[in-house]
Amino acid sequence: MADPAHEVWAAAAPLWGWAVESARWGWQNLDDPVGPLLAEHVLLSYASVLIGLVLAVPLGVLSVRYRVVYPPVLSGVNALYAIPSLALFFLLLPYTAFSPWTAIIPLALYTLAILVPNVVDGLNQVPDHVRQAAAAMGFSPLRRLLQVELPVAVPVIIAGLRVAAVATISMVSVASLVGLGGLGGVILTYGFARNFAAPVVVGITLSVALAFATDGLLVLAQRALTPWARDRGPARRGGRGLAVRRRATAAARAGEKGAL
Amino acid sequence: MNVAADVASWFAQPENWRGPGGIPVRFAEHVYYSLAALALAAAIAVPVGLLTGHTGRGGFLAISLANFARALPTIGVLTLVVLGMGLGLVPVLVALVALAVPPILVNTYEGVRGVDPQVTDAARGMGMRGREVLARLEVPLAMPLILLGLRTAAVQVVSTATIAAYVGIGGLGRFIVDGQSQQIIEQILGGALLVVLLALAVTALFALLRRLVVAPGLRSRPASPSS
User: Fold this and answer.
1) Angle at which helices A70-82 and A101-124 cross, to 10°
2) A113 part of a folded domain
3) Is residue B126 part of a domain?
4) In a domain, A7, yes or no
5) How many CB contacts within 8 angstroms connect chain A with chain B?
6) Domain containing residue B106: CATH number
7) Structurally, how many domains does chain B consist of?
8) Do A187 and B79 touch (CB under 8 A)?
């Protein structure tokens, strides 16, 4: 009797209407709230991840050079990670007020829990013979670090960056509760406050799209930074599987801090 | 250090410890929301992770879905469900479950996948069936990672449950939200501090749990399949 396909379409129709309405709202409001808030979202998340990376590399290098440093550093970044983001935003409000730093400082600190272990793992997996070859060629320790060890560690570091970037981009929205959350502002101010679903859908969609686009950019960056891996071809034995796995392991290892 | 003194005096006031809006009640509510969300998420993610990890089928799909869920902004999910269903506990639980599933799923899957095939082969050679291999070998070996996933999810859920206050229900977020609307800084900080303490307690609890349920031979290793 009832055509199942027809029922599916009937159920999907409101969803389709929703999607159309949301797309229209997003397009009509591109100049006013959506575009600028998307730009703010990019700024807040990228700045946080970059600052996190700038802090994580020296911390990781120190942890590898001086083994005793690593356990306290690891406990430290894990303790930071246990502090809720909303709490940190509020704790910072009296000092940084409504400047971008109120969002950037906590978000950057969270990335450390993901990035520091990845930098350490990346540096630790540099083969000994590579290190020795560099030393035998007369590389100073600093030059060896910059030109040999860090480049070899790039895939693992970027695996961490990918996890950190996705987590940070989804977390930025929380900062809208203190008035600066990029697309979170679209969701809360235009959606929640006005009881209107279209801005919420637009905010979620753009946030997810930004996360995936950034992830893609990082994959491209890895290809650009590790030409030797590309020349050799993506190792037939489990190229993709290995990459997926490495990333998932990085996520697992980092104890990823997800949305918020 | 004026602020610290203010916060201390906020904690010292007896009326903050009494009644339905008191610290103990709010704390209990917060624990209740978090536990409910974590239990629901674990009920979804652990079986899926074990099954995909054990069979090796659907793993890519499961991980991709988890990555997608991880990219979802929690605030957005919460708002969307609130607009659909109204204020209350359900939207909060949906948002928290969406938050907690990815780390549990990814870690459970990776934990089972990471079991040395030689070990499972040996178990099969000894006559164990698939189900026994999973229950007696893969689950115990994956336990450190499963616990890590649960811990990660639990800490996130505890910290995120603060936003429950924005959709009109209780929990420690009430102190933060109401403190903000009434401009009582020490109440915001007091609420934040309580959430931090709860998150740290969760971390400690999982360290204890790790001692209890992880096989002694695995305990000395770090909770990651590091080489």
Assistant:
1) 140
2) yes
3) yes
4) no
5) 176
6) 1.10.3720.10
7) 1
8) yes
Sign of the Cα torsion A112, A114, A120, A126 reads: negative
Q: Specify if B226 maps to a domain.
A: no
Please, which residues have CB within 8 angstroms of residue A127's CB and are 6 or more apart in sequence? A152
Q: Is B134 contained in some domain?
A: yes
Domain that holds residue A103: 31-254
Reported ipTM: 0.79
Tokens 């006031």 belong to B13
Domain annotation covers residue B227:
no
Ordered per-residue pLDDT tens for chain A, 260 residues: 556 677 777 777 777 877 888 888 888 888 888 899 999 999 999 999 999 999 999 999 999 999 999 999 988 888 787 677 777 887 787 788 788 899 999 999 999 999 999 999 999 999 999 989 998 999 998 999 999 999 999 999 999 999 999 999 999 988 888 888 889 888 888 888 888 888 999 999 999 999 999 999 999 999 998 888 766 544 444 444 444 445 445 444 444 433 33
**Is A249 part of the contact surface with chain B (CB cutoff 8 Å)?**
yes
Is A154 domain-assigned? Answer: yes
Distance between B73 CA and the closest CA of chain A, angstroms = 4
Angle between helices A197-225 and B74-85 (to 10 degrees): 160
Range of the domain at B193: 2-219
Rounded to 10°, the helix B23-55/B173-181 angle is 130
d(CA A259, CA B188): 22
> Residue B104's closest chain A neighbor by CA?
A252
Residue A83's region, left for phi above 0, alpha for psi from -120 to 50, else beta, is beta
Tokens of A222: 């890895």
Q: Choosing among A119, A169, A256, A257, which should be mutated to test the B contact, i.e. which has the most B CBs within 10 A?
A: A256
49-108 in chain B: CB under 8 A from chain A: 60, 63, 67-68, 70-77, 79-80, 82-84, 98-99, 102-103, 106-107
Please state, in angstroms and rounded to a whole number, the distance separating the CA atoms of residues A146 and A152: 10
Give a yes or no: residue A17 inside a domain.
Answer: no
Q: How many domains are there within chain A?
A: 1
Tell me which residues of chain A, numbers 35 to 54, contact chain B at a CB-CB cutoff of 8 Å: none
**The domain spanning residue A192 has which CATH number?**
1.10.3720.10
